[in-house]
């Protein structure tokens, strides 16, 4: 599994989402997902929404995923060097 495949799965599974995924070794990844559907949800619920898009790949093909899940407003308020 590669970063572009994970990005595609997340963006297909969360309509309107924008994902950035990085991972050099093919099993450990970092992702930042920006999605309006996260509004009003706690971080754990947001992470579950992302994990649901990846299904059984989590814990299998994807050994670890470090995740930031933000609404568009939260992403816009972040300093530009953190994006």
Automatic annotation (TrEMBL):
Gene3D superfamilies: BolA-like. It comes from the Bacteria. InterPro entries: BolA (IPR002634), BolA-like_sf (IPR036065), BolA/IbaG_stress_morph_reg (IPR050961). One of its GO terms (cellular component) is cytosol. One of its GO terms (biological process) is DNA-templated transcription. SUPFAM superfamilies: BolA-like. Belongs to the BolA/IbaG family. This is BolA family transcriptional regulator.
């Amino acid at each position: 599994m590669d970063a572009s495949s994970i990005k595609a799965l997340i963006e297909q599974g969360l309509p309107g989402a924008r994902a950035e995924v990085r991972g050099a070794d093919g099993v450990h990844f970092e992702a930042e997902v920006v999605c309006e559907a996260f509004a009003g949800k706690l971080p754990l619920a947001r992470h579950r929404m992302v994990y649901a898009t990846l299904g059984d790949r989590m814990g299998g093909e994807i050994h670890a995923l470090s995740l930031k899940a933000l609404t568009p407003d939260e992403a816009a308020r972040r300093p530009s060097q953190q994006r």
